Amino acid sequence: MIIVTGAAGFIGSCLISKLNQENFNFIIAVDDFSSPEKERNLTGKRIQERVHREEFFAWLDQNYQEVEFLFHIGARTDTTEFDWQVFEHLNLNYSKTIWQKCIDYQIPLVYASSAATYGLGELGYDDNESLIPQLKPLNPYGESKNEFDIWALEQERKPFFWAGLKFFNVYGPNEYHKERMASVIFHAYNQICQTGEMRLFRSHHPDFRDGEQMRDFVYVKDVVDVCSFLMHHRRNSGIYNLGSGKARTFLDLANNTFRAMGRESQINFVDTPADIRDKYQYYTQANMGKLRSIGYTKHFCTLEEGITDYVQNYLLPGKTL
Question: Quick one: which residues bind substrate (predicted)?
């Protein structure tokens, strides 16, 4: 059995698809399953059992001998949530219990961290574990992810294999339910469908022209490929960046979305809201050298390749992965 927490969500459901493609069909899907909208993410997938996240630890105590691997993808990911107790329960304490169970039951673990831990990137975007305690996330979500990374590194007892993945700006199928937290590509597609144009934030930084703010956008198919690699590799435990390794501008993103939809670009700029201007990231780019150094050689989708596949094979037909 392979466990996937956050199974009905964006990355978790895409990971189950990847596992099914590799003929792993005894999947334990862990989530709260309270959102009817997310139900379509699991339609057609081969799942052995669904377990509510609040019942999961009791289930694991009874069934651990059959578990081969655990992907802990579930988390509260809303960067606009400021109730620390939510993050303390779901992102910190829940993850600590999973970590302890993986030690007790000898289960290898991959868990989701986040590039939100890097804050404004004052120390760069290198997954150097010695720098992690010095990072300054910009919101409680990023703080919760960084606190768990710090806690994990401090532990004397660790799972025999474990990896934390700092996801950068992930986009792709099955994110439709994320509303404000969905990728810019998803929002671009819907804006273009509804209005024929795309709105981008104006730059308020002297070093960046309008639309030339840059992010590391990584396609979800690449994310789940890396998860699969680590499940088979099971060596070189630690915390790894997971981006494309190439920063691209929002203009690149918008123009490629128009192109994939077969439309002429029509882009308008609006002021970045005043309440987020001082916390706005103008540049992110994952240093992917550490993952490459342990043997991951697969090509990461370019922004052009990822957007074309996402728009033409999933958004236009209304499909999930």
Answer: 169, 180, 187, 201-204, 215, 280
Q: Tell me the per-residue pLDDT of 251-272, one tens digit each, with 9 for 90 and over.
A: 999 999 999 999 999 999 999 9
Alpha helices in 105-163 (DSSP H): 140-154
CATH no., domain 2-170+217-244+285-300: 3.40.50.720
141 is catalytic: yes
Which residue in the list 178, 246, 283, 296 is annotated as catalytic?
178
- Kindly report, residue by residue over 155-209, the tens digit of the pLDDT: 999 999 999 999 999 999 999 999 888 999 999 999 999 999 999 999 999 999 9
Task: Please give the Cα distance from 28 to 73 (Å, whole number).
Answer: 13
89 known member of a binding site: no
Measure the CA–CA gap between 296 and 34, rounded to whole angstroms: 36
Annotated binding residue 32 = yes
The answer to whether 294 is annotated as binding is no
Catalytic residue (choose from 94, 118, 141, 176): 141
CA 290, 292, 298, 304 torsion: positive or negative?
positive
Structure tokens at 39: 């139900």
Model pLDDT for residues 293-304, shown as the tens digit of each residue: 999 999 999 999
- CA count, 13 A, side-chain hemisphere, 264: 1
> Annotation-wise, does 280 bind a ligand?
yes
